[in-house]
Amino acid sequence: MADTFNSLLRLWEHDKLRTLALSESVDEPGASTRLPDGRLAVADTNHHRVITVDVASGDCERDRDSR
């Protein structure tokens, strides 16, 4: 889930809330959804982009269609 005003991503796992350590910063993340391969797609609102996040490693990749 997006913790918008703290600029963090959090994930419920095994009945606990975990903060994802990301490879790059996000600024007011908005909507997020889990992709079929397990990654998250996240609207990085103030950076005007969509990123995908590997939830195991925290690696971020900019969506190639984002400008």
Task: List its traits.
mainly beta, 0% helix, 67 residues, 7 strands
Walk me through what this model shows.
This protein has no helices and seven strands. 16% of the residues are buried. The protein has strands at residues 2-3, 8-13, 16-19, 29-34, 40-44, 49-53, 60-62. The model has no long low-confidence stretch (mean pLDDT 90). A hairpin with a 4-residue loop joins strand 5 (40-44) and strand 6. The chain is globular and about 35 Å long. The protein has a four-stranded antiparallel beta sheet with strand order 4-5-6-7, with no helix packed on it. Helix content is 0%, strand content 46%. It is mainly β and 67 residues long.
Q: Which spans of ≥5 residues are poorly predicted at pLDDT below 50?
A: none
Terminal residue distance:
23 Å
User: Can you write the helix and strand succession as a string?
Assistant: EEEEEEE
Number of helices: 0
Helix-and-strand structural type: mainly beta
Rg over CA atoms: 11 Å
Strand content: over 45%
Helical percent range?
Answer: under 10%
List the helices and strands and how they pair.
Layout: E1 2-3, E2 8-13, E3 16-19, E4 29-34, E5 40-44, E6 49-53, E7 60-62
Antiparallel strand pairs: 1-2, 2-3, 4-5, 5-6, 6-7
Summarize the structure.
The protein is mainly β and 67 residues long.
